[in-house]
Amino acid sequence: MISIPGRSHRILIKLGIAVLLAAVAPSVRAPTALAADEPANSTDAQPPAQGPEQPQPLEEIIVQAPEPRYVAPTRRDRIGRIWAPVYINNKGPFRMVLDTGANRSGVIASVANALHLPPDASSRLMLHGVTGSTPVSTIHVDSILVGDVLVKTSRMPILPDALGGAEGILGTEGLQDRRVFIDFRHDLIIIARSHNQLAPYGFEVIPFKFERGKLLVVDAVVGSVRCKAIIDTGGQATVANLALKRALSRRAARNPTVDEIEGVTKEIQLGEGYRAPPITFGKLEIRSDHMTFADMNIFKHWELTDEPALLIGMDAIGLLDTLIIDYHRRELHLRMR
Questions:
Q1: Cβ distance 40 to 140 under 8 Å?
Q2: What element of type H or E holds 227?
Q3: Which residues in 69-224 belong to E strands, given as ranges?
Q4: CA 110, CA 152: separation in Å to the nearest integer?
């Protein structure tokens, strides 16, 4: 939670990826399908023939996990996000941040070095972060294992920084039919196959939908304004777009803070921080002392600039007792402390 009053103060907010990753050719061009990956470029590939560009086959990601085999303690990083132990090529575990806003996992350079995998600059991905976009090199890994999720044959981007002391970002690939259980009081994370079970007694059920490349979006109300809320476990703080600020303008307090927002691409954008009205999901109400409003790069990328929207970060999510994300049922199961 962030709560620093006064116009003269500056808050540095560090956010995870909250991105879509799209492949780019070595010359770096704008991707035509933001959530789709192009195959890795071959170093001995011949120049393309003249004429219309031919469509490239989609890269395959195979997930094999017959039975749950993972219940592990976790802990928070320096900015309050959830760490999960992840094995890559049967080595590790590496401390990676669970990021529901990222559709692909990535690691920092030291992990690639530990795996003895040199970055491949000829096969790059476009990294779309909260504050900016940049092309990055990749490594090719044989397996990513977390919980009962085994992802084989994957390209992983080399992140400029995973922030908060983490060694990488754990994205949502392979979680399509999984259930993620996070117990904040006991720092416990369980990733297992969803068996379509109902929410436990005492939990509020919030349906979610996937938008714009597997973004986990729920309907929420901020104050009295209805908006789209993106559940972003990779972000430190809750950040809203300017459309929501305009809708809440009558409630806006004076003397906002100046918030510096740093994303995984290391670019920094400025925002204005105000005392936040409650965020309501169904019957639950989360009260946070601070919310940042900014014209973020990622809102433009997701085409969420004209309607009220916000990224709900760990300053709000971490106030829960338990969070369950059932990807098979497309439901959040929430319990307050």
A1: yes
A2: strand 225-231
A3: 71-73, 83-88, 91-98, 106-107, 120-128, 133-146, 149-157, 168-170, 178-183, 188-193, 204-207, 209-211, 215-222
A4: 21
Which two structure tokens, joined as six digits, stand for 7? 């116009």
Q: How far is Cα 264 from Cα 268, in angstroms, rounded to an integer?
A: 10
Q: What letter would DSSP give residue 251?
A: G
Q: Which pairs from 70-74 meet CB under 8 Å and 24+ separation? A: 70/146, 70/147, 70/148, 70/190, 70/191, 70/192, 71/188, 71/190, 72/188, 72/189, 72/190, 73/186, 73/187, 73/188, 73/189, 74/187, 74/188, 74/189
- Judge contact between 114 and 91, C-beta under 8 A: yes
Tell me the pLDDT of the chain (337 aa) as tens digits: 322 233 334 555 556 554 444 444 332 222 222 233 333 343 344 444 445 444 444 333 333 333 333 334 445 555 567 788 899 999 999 989 888 888 889 999 999 999 999 998 888 888 887 878 888 999 999 999 987 788 887 889 999 877 777 899 888 888 888 999 988 888 788 888 899 999 999 999 999 998 876 789 999 999 889 999 999 888 888 899 999 999 988 655 567 888 888 777 778 888 888 887 899 988 888 887 788 899 888 888 888 999 999 999 888 888 889 999 999 999 999 998 8
* Helices and strands (H, E) in the chain, number of each type: 4, 26
DSSP assignment letter at 245:
H
